[in-house]
Amino acid sequence: MVTAEYVIFVTIAGVMLGTFYGLATIGLSFTFGILRILNSGHGSFVMIGAYISYWCFALLGLPPLVSSLLAFAVGFFMGFALYHGLISRVLGGPELISLVLMFAFGIFLQEVAKFSWSASPRGFTWGLGSINIFGYEYPLTRLIGGVVSAVIVLVLYVFLFRTKSGNAIRSVVEDPEGAALCGVNVSRVYALSLAIALGLTVASGALSTLFVSGGIEPYMGDPYTTRAFAIAVLGGLTSPFGSFLAGLLFGIIENLSYMLLSLANVGNPFSMTRFLTFAMILLVLLIRPQGLLKR
Amino acid sequence: MDIRTHRSLIILFLVSLILLFVRVGIPETRQILSILFFYIALSEVFNLFTGLTLYVCFGYVAFVALGMYGGGATIKYLLSASSPPPLAVVLACAFAVAGILALILALAVGWISVRLKGAYFAIATIGLNEGLKNLIEGTGIWGGSSGLVIANDLIQSYNYDTFIFVTSELADYLIFTVYAVTILCIYLVIKSRLGYGLAALREDEEAANVMGVNVVRYKLIVFVISATLAGMLGAGKMIKDVAIYPPQAFAVSYTVEAIVISMLGGLGTVTGPVIGGLIYGVLKYVLTVSFPGLQLLALAPALMAMCVMFPYGIVGWLRRRFKGSKIESLLI
Amino acid sequence: MSKELLRLENVSKSFGGIRALNNVNLIIKEGEKLAIIGPNGAGKTTLFNAISGVFGLDSGRIFYMGRDITKLPPFKRKYLGISRAFQIPRPFAGMTVLDNVVVGALFSRDIKDIKEARVRAEEILSLVGLHSKKDELAVNLTSPEKKLLELARALAPKPKLLLLDEIVAGIPPAEVDKIMGLVVRISEQENISVVALVEHVMRVLKYVERAVFLHEGRVMMDDTPDKVLNSEVVKDIYLGKVYE
Question: How many angstroms away from the CA of C240 is the closest CA of chain B?
């Protein structure tokens, strides 16, 4: 039976999940907004983060909160390496090439993960107990995950609007040529932006284990790619904070639609929710290709 | 796009004929040529859209999978009757249904996505694969997550020998036919007004629009043709594999392979996918034998290297290398 | 005397708060040759974009041969006979010179099939003097040749209205006579209306019958070239720049 309390509970859970989705998408629109490159292998970076979190917990006993910092560092480093090794060579070329390149890199990460850690799903439980919301149990780890995601996004905001590097990044978004004329090292900004974007994405992967404690496997990223695309187009694709808000919205929608699908009893609600994600992308692109939240 | 097309198509035709004769004449080549046929067909079908428009649809394998399901379900349905119709009718229906289903999906997705440019098109289509897979698993149609198997239906309705003939001989020729039809389609497209329009939009979409090219409609037309052929290719694959399971059917590897082969050979060229397919098919055969399960691990870095070092593929490279000579005019 | 071909009614367009076109009213007659002049940033190219349909208008309407074309996409306008040469030539780089012109010819109401388009393309290439280069890739042409290709591609579809965006910019004076002579000859033969955007009206003065002076998105003057050139308004705005 659906009570008002249950709907509120599902909505609150959706807000927590949505904050996390926002974080998991922000890197995608950051890269697209600044480098004009669509990270078609986005989900694989989330997957790497989840594995980092798993191994830190399994081998060192570190909780995901700590390992997300390490995950950020790994992603940050990967971003620099990727930029100087590959991306800088295809920038300004045909869009198709950068799309295929990122797609291939995503596949590469998946295959490396499969080769190193096998394809069988792994998981761990960081048991902190749960809190009671209107009579429903909500795991404390998810609450932490939502709050930490929000804090990270806040830090990014402060970085972009209050520091010199952040200003340089924003100036490149507005006008790359103008920024270059004003003495901004555009190439450095690109590298830094990709590093930050991938750092955030990998960190979000580490935090993902707070929400879903199992199912860590090489191909777990694919649904994240689809979801992140859906969220990013909702938010207008080029705006990181638009993506964050869209993520929040998406988390709520996803949780509510899961609830409704379970009630309506049409097929497997888990798969159907994922199908609806794809349908939503098409719908948004049909109605408002510039994004729902833009202007 | 004039005389050169004719010449290169004649060469293509000859190469294909030789492959076909080898396949018929030397039974030992069955295994490797069957792989080659499939990959050449796959990348030529992929190339019909991506090569002619330079738009890439990452969810491409969904059309092949839908064709497999559509073909398989048709066969299962027709053979469930008390007196099954003749084999030729069953197979023809399977191909027709596979093609029509893919066509409908392509119209629905394409109608929205071809209006979009560049990265937005990729976003609209990357989830296609996941979306369809989850729809099948979620609603449980076509066997849902437990898959669709037609081996027993074929054996019981006909006999074991026919079953072996259909799956190990006929299927290859059907796939080869899809390839031949694809080449014919590409030829007809590039010879037509459509071909000129696409060539222009590939170079500069906005200028093409101002020059009078209905870019949206043209993209949609080739997207739908290509997807329909992909669906038919799926029907051929279903007849060959006689089973389909969601995890394998929607494996991203087909999309990657199609991109790799097209890019290796030369994207947007007619001969490229054949050259790329031949090389890739042999490599894959060797790799599967010596390192089973690791093709993608090797393939992904290879694709990355191609993007950075020679995005124009073998045919593109040869055309530059032999610029102005006869060889250039043969490779298109 | 001659019929109206194109009419712009109160056309306005803004970009991020800047009014690029401000209530523009303009009538172009059949077979007329007219220059639109104005300093950099006057809204000349925006005007062309509005006529060829690259973007929608904020307000106002455009009529072509009596038909409201305000909402038509670019390719349909081209099909109806509005042909355009870009300021910075945008040839289809990977295609041959001939194929470039064939594309220009093929997508129009008056040319039925590829064969006819090829004949027309060869004819135009001979007229502009590029016939010997027809099998070269467009990317390999020199910049003046690219200008000629741009012109050929725009003339190929037998347009009713030819929009030339700075066709003589960066061209030596002797070449200007050649190009403009060509434009005048072909347009008179085929009864094409020509609208030329130019920053410096002096360069095309003798080829046009009318000049429209555009400034900050407004039509400031619309008269014979002489009168426009000698008006105080124009002199003030150009600060004598016209007399280079």
Answer: 35
> Which of C140, C158, C176 finishes a domain?
C158
Same domain (yes/no): C61, C176: yes
Write out chain B residues lying below 8 Å of A105, CB-based.
300, 304
CA distance C150 to B300: 42
Choose among A94, A96, A278: nearest Cβ to B131: A278
Smallest CA-to-CA distance from B200 within C208, C90, A228 is with: C90
Domains of chain A with bracketed CATH: 4-287 (1.10.3470)
How far apart, in whole angstroms, are the C-alpha atoms of residue A76 and residue A203? 10
For chain B, percent of residues with pLDDT exceeding 70: 95
| CA atoms of C63 and C10, how far apart (whole Å) | 12
What pLDDT, in 10s, does the model give residues C90-148?
A: 888 878 888 889 988 888 888 878 888 899 999 889 888 888 888 888 888 888 888 88
Q: What is the ipTM of this complex?
A: 0.81
Q: Is residue B211 less than 8 Å (CB to CB) from chain C?
A: yes
May I ask the CATH architecture of the domain B3-330?
Orthogonal Bundle (1.10)
Q: Closest CB to C107: pick one of B199, B202, B211.
A: B211
Q: Kindly state whether residues C77 and C169 are assigned to the same domain.
A: yes
**Model confidence at B325: pLDDT above 70:** no
Any CB–CB contact under 8 A between A96 and chain B?
A: yes
CATH number at residue C196: 3.40.50.300
Question: Do A and C count as touching (3 or more CB pairs closer than 8 A)?
Answer: no
Residue ranges per structural domain of chain B: 3-330
Tokens 């974009």 found at: C49
DSSP state, residue C138? G
Last residue of a domain, one of C158, C182, C209: C158
- Chain C contact set for B199 (CB, 8 A): 92, 95, 99, 103
pLDDT at B40 over 80: yes
SS3 label, residue C164: strand
A14-58 confidence digits (pLDDT tens): 888 899 999 999 999 889 888 888 888 899 999 999 999 999 999
Chains B and C touch (3+ CB pairs under 8 A): yes
pLDDT of residue B304: 84
Instruction: Tell me the C-alpha to C-alpha distance, in Å, between residue C32 and each of B40, C36, C243.
Output: 56, 13, 26
Contact C38, C67 (CB under 8 A): no
C194 and C236 co-located in one domain: yes
Q: How many domains does chain C have?
A: 2
